[in-house]
Amino acid sequence: MPTSRPLTHLLYLHGFRSSPESAKARRMAQQMTTRHPEVTWWCPQLPPSPREACQMLTRGLKDWPRESMAVIGSSLGGFYATWVAELTGCKAVLLNPAVDPARDLAQYIGEQTCWQDPQERFFFRSEFVQELRDLACANTTRPERYLAIIAKGDELLDWHEAYARYAGAQIRLLEDGDHAISDFEVQMPALLTFLGLS
Predict the structure, then answer these.
(1) Measured CA angle at 10 (ends 5, 16), to 5 deg
(2) 50-90 residue pLDDT tens
(3) For the whole model, what pTM was predicted?
(4) CA-closest candidate to residue 166, choices 99, 70, 111
(5) Residue 31 CB: number of other CB atoms within 10 A?
(6) 76-88 vs 50-60: helix axis angle to the nearest 10?
(7) Which of 57, 77, 105, 137 is the most buried (most CB within 10 A)?
(8) To which H or E segment does residue 11 belong?
(9) Does position 2 have pLDDT exceeding 90, yes or no?
(10) Residue 4 domain flag
(11) Domain ranges, residue 32
């Protein structure tokens, strides 16, 4: 592990069309509140613009201790979490991470709704695709900092891409599963152990 310092700060990044109200985000928030109240927990609503999202994260993480922070990211949040981990050198847990969101989300330009609240609408603009390209990390340095939980049954993303992208990381390859990782409760012990929170 890159550090033996106890975790003091944890960031959770939701996916595209998702929010801090997703099942995984709420379950992690509950875990942190009840079991690890001493850890600073931050699960922001990310703006649709990738550039604005990363500017917000840069501001929010400015005073976080690099040696005792970590990030969890789901889907598009996994792409952002990789960006955060490469920027800060912290540990990262990736849940069915998006590998090439610029390619995948190009078909979603236009008005979108939030999974958790269909009344919540936002506009995904064509320039956001280029913003995603600009944020892509060529390689992951020190892959031992990463734990990737990847489901072969992911109905939205090709698991082979994530498996190859995070070669050298700790990988939990689920034989079935789905994009949402509906058995997240089963996966949580490994995630918490990796973060030193078990």
Answers:
(1) 145
(2) 999 999 999 999 999 999 999 999 999 999 999 999 999 99
(3) 0.94
(4) 99
(5) 17
(6) 40
(7) 77
(8) strand 9-13
(9) no
(10) no
(11) 9-194
